Amino acid sequence: MSAGGLHPSQPFPDAARETLADAQMRRNLRHAAGTIREKRLRAVAEVANWEDIRTQGASIKDTVLGNLAEHLLELEASVKRRGGQVHWARDAGEAQRLVADLVAAQGVSEVIKVKSISTDEIELNAALEARGIHATETDLAELIVQLAEDRPSHILVPAIHKNRAEIRELFRHKLGADLLTDDPAVLAEAARVYLREKFLTTKVAISGANFAIADTGTVCIVESEGNGRMCLTLPDVLISVMGIEKVLPSWADIAPFMQLLPRSSTAERMNPYTSFWSGITPGDGPQHFHLILLDNGRTDVLADKVGRETLRCIRCSACLNVCPVYERAGGHAYGSVYPGPIGAILTPQLLQLEDENANSLPWASSLCGACYDACPVKINIPEILIYLRGQITPHKTPNAESIAMKTAAWIFNEPHRFEGAIKLAHTGQGPLVQHGAIRALPGMLGGWTSSRNLPPFPKQSFRELWRRENEGEQ
Amino acid sequence: MQIDLFITCLNDALFPQTGLAMARLLRRLGHTVRFNEAQTCCGQMHFNTGYQAEALPLIRKFVQDFRDAEVIVAPSGSCVAFVRDLYPKAAEWAGDEVLLAQVQELGTRTFELSEFLVKVLGVEDVGASYPHRVTYHPTCHAARLLRVGDAPLKLLQNVRGLSLVELPASDQCCGFGGTFSVKNPETSTAMLADKVANVMSTRAEVCTAGDNSCLMHIGGGLSRLQSGTGVVHLAEILASVEGEG
Ligand code: SF4
């Protein structure tokens, strides 16, 4: 299922308070993130000119974004020339209708799916269900999440928050599989038996796309399990939903991404399965191919000079795996199919900074910068976070924080006000200081002192001490 | 060299001993230091929290206050990173070309203490003595934005009597992040818990860093747990001479 969409149901701090309480999930996440972090560093260190490839990847993406309409029109023409059909979807609703109509036209009530975040973004599975069409996820982790009636918590490893024992129970219960152990091979085999039957009997497959090449009309999917390849070759009809930013000008442009993506995402030198298809080939593979070009807020992101960089993202998930906030709070706290650092900048932008809950996401970061270091296409996530904070704040109604901030700015604008304020703080803190430390602060600062002490203001500020020590010298 | 101290608002108000130590240290190395009392705050807190309109006057004021400085040195990686990295962005986003040129130039004269000592002055042994077991936390902004690298470690390795113990998972953020720790206190606490556990596992007497904001956070956690490990700013260790500390 992996319905999820973009709209968080609550602000990040509230959602995180709930997810942080799940100790099992935190252990699972810490283990998984720690392992993949190490592996990625090793995989990246093997490539001597990694920095150059990053720069190249970023610059290809920027070229595309600088002229997106033209590349998309070229892609449309090339796909059509190769016997495929192209549809444009302005928003999630349009995309859902397009897919559902195409499936319904085949007279079927079942489809198989290749793991795709863009279809999760538009909540496709739920929309299909509403039209009496059942979608089966074929990626192992997506299948786990679907069977558990859960939501994915990671863009690459959707079931990262679950451990083997939990999965064994799930398969026993939902697939009726008689599993003697929770050995990964045994679990995978149970899923394989179940899925094989689906691959062989289902007429329509739905996928996303990692890349699409404008001049040849070629669409590309990169995956690890081979289930994607089955979906892309066995059914009669293939429908691919692709975010409009995924287009690349020509074949040569894909080369750097084939190095950047696998190493950044799964820490592999090369991913096991890479599928390319250009339109249709009579007598081989699906005989009907539909490419749906999804906007869903992307042109608004593109229009913003600073935010635009976000659309370089190739969804490798490296930023999630290095993010200390993601590692603690988990993917569900972000309330969107895009969690972690990329989610914190992409989700609110796709929603035009109009969703109050999504607008809390740019603050869900300590700005430690690990994501920027890891991002294979050099998206300066911390900078965009700060930029978005600055876009959102002025539209908020005045509150305790904004009053405090404005007062502080007024104080900082004059050194004598600043000096006076420090003196006042020293005098005023009296009742708060116990045994040389502040253990509880009132109001919005209370959260801070729930777990840490604060040093009290000293008797004299630096400037006072400096003046005394250096009197006569200056 | 004539050095202008950039003390930062947090250090001025809460940690005056750090600024004094830095001044002492730089004088001991033969430089003259100056403190322009007009300075207050670089505007980082406002800018990073989303109050960019409030930050801009503070940025302009900073440019004014330090316009005659030959070099500007601060005991704070994050404030220096803000001046060097984000002042240009602030100017760009505000569409102010004049300011942009000013801050780009200013950035070339502004340094964090450890990088100034090692990379600018070429000094790795500052003649300090500090007979304690110490662990070092590389702060995110110094490590990732300023790329100070092993400059602080080199300085610490040359301190007499100091035994330096490695901090496990040292590159992990302590969870402070300025107003992040106020707005997301639970997530911040979860990050802090790991940092504090790692510090305690070193059995160091002192955890040091180049930024009192991070140390205030880590120290706050250590103190709440009555861990017995204290926090001391790098400048204070480097300023210590025999018979002190
Ligand atoms: S933002 Fe960068 S690191 Fe994160 S998923 Fe996208 S490409 Fe990967």
UniProtKB/TrEMBL annotation, chain A:
One of its GO terms (molecular function) is metal ion binding. The keyword Kinase does not apply. Keywords: 4Fe-4S, Electron transport, Iron, Iron-sulfur, Metal-binding, Repeat, Transport. The keyword Transferase does not apply. Residues 304-325 form the 4Fe-4S ferredoxin-type domain. GO terms for biological process: lactate metabolic process. It comes from the Bacteria. This is Iron-sulfur cluster-binding protein. It comes from Deinococcus ruber.
UniProtKB/TrEMBL annotation, chain B:
GO terms for cellular component: cytosol. This is Fe-S oxidoreductase. Residues 5-82, 134-218 form the Cysteine-rich domain. The lineage of its organism: Bacteria, Thermotogati, Deinococcota, Deinococci, Deinococcales. One of its GO terms (molecular function) is oxidoreductase activity. Pfam families: CCG (PF02754). InterPro entries: Cys_rich_dom.
